[in-house]
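Bug #2210: token dump truncated for Peptidoglycan glycosyltransferase RodA?
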Amino acid sequence: MKSSRDIKLFFKRLKKMNNFLVLNAIIIVAISISTIYSATITRTSSFYIKESIWAVIGVFSYLFVTMIDYRKYLKYYKVLYLLNIVILCSVFLLGVSRLGAQRWIDLGPVSIQPSEIGKVLLVITLSAFLSTYFKDRVVGIKSVIIAGAHMAPVLLLILKQPDLGTTLIILMTFSVIIFMCGLDWKTIIIFGISGMAFVPFAYFFLLKDYQRQRVLTFLNPEADLLGSGWNVTQSMIAIGSGKLYGKGFLNSSQSKLKFLPEAHTDFIVSVFLEERGFIGGALLFLLYIILIMQIIYVAETTSDRFGKLVCYGIAAIFFFHFVINVGMTMGIMPVTGKPLLLMSYGGTSLLISFIMLGIVQSVRIYRD
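Reproduced locally. Full output below:
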């Protein structure tokens, strides 16, 4: 009898799944694969094939994670926190350096980026920590400092790689989660002013030379058109040449003629906008807005504090990746090398994106 009830409960929960959430993601990935194909077809066909394989793995991972009761993460969050530290430390022992940073671990035919895993595990453990020790609401400065102490080891390990882009996303995601806990406005204003005052110190004493150069390039990309300003300038040329309807599929001249570096990764949006124009870009951005709003809706309709905070954290990760990457390609934000989730080429990024959506779906079907 118990087994029969469990089966009925399982299928009842399956009916609660928001199938449009994963459909939305799959549509974006389909657009991604076609754009990767267009951006790399003159060099190799392996990129879009690899991304297609990762997409299939991602969908199966999404289904697997969906079936796991998200409340188990709350039960074992301390173990997950230690696992996160171990994973991030491993990059310094086993990682390889690329473009001046040690962020990747090579596993034969594939590479993984531990910081991508780290930020998701941090959302889970931070949400669990806040749900456990602040059952009602977070109030003031002391609460933020305690929560910040939970985040600090993970943040410092990622910053040491160095990975400034992920560090910024974690800080902004932390701000969203702590705000949704009920932070009072007095504390928000104090930390806001403190943060602005800290910016000059960080620029002169914490940023590396190439990171400061990225900020200067953002402020004036024309100052070094053939050097640090090349990527952003070529990206803006690609976007502008797409006009209203775009040049058409496979007609992205900036990537075909190799004017636009990293066309299939950091600047994939530039390729898409050159081929599909303003109309195509508006539709793509709408897909992201709908995806993020669906995650927020799950958060808003969940009474469980832990599930609510996890969903807000995941929504924040998607949102800030979108804002930073798109802003970077349009020249309105500094270049940080952050991918557009579900769109930019990268196996780890794509897999983690589907896993995050699986966690959101789990909150939807297992919430009380």
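Output looks complete on our side. Residues 18-366 form one domain. Marking as cannot-reproduce; reopen if the truncation happens again.
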